[in-house]
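Morning!

This is the sequence you dropped in the shared folder:
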Amino acid sequence: MDLDSAPKTLHLDDLNVGDVFLSRAQAVDAQQIVQFASQFDPQPFHLDEEAAKDTYFQGLAASGWHTAAITMRLMVESFPLAQGLIGAGVELSWSQPTRPGDVLRVKSTILSITPSRSKPDRAIILFETITLNQRDEAVQKLTSRIVAFRRPQGDALRTPA
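The structure's back. Tokens below.
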């Protein structure tokens, strides 16, 4: 679903296996990379372009956690799930670093929906989110289990304005 056509809030009843959600683009610059790393992942390859040249990354690279944080923001915006994105476990991998000048976006796909046996108002969604750069190269893959809730009885389907 694209942001302009998606309902304002999605419930379990609105979702199907195979649904795809696309985010907007988010540019990443060197200042953002250094600022995030200074606070959360202070390693030379995230903090200093010159020092990073002699590392495994051979240049400034965003922390994987920075990429994950950007991904989370883009997921929240592009998949407006009722009651929020409540995680029930993830698998996370980084296939290549995010670099200054990269423009990231996410493509999320519902892989499966497993209704709860004990709580009929909810299900677990298996959700794959690929974070892509401006060259359509994957920089991160996130497979999440997310709790999704049914629409409360009596609520009508909300349609976009």
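Headline: The longest strand covers residues 103-115.

More detail when I'm at my desk.
O.
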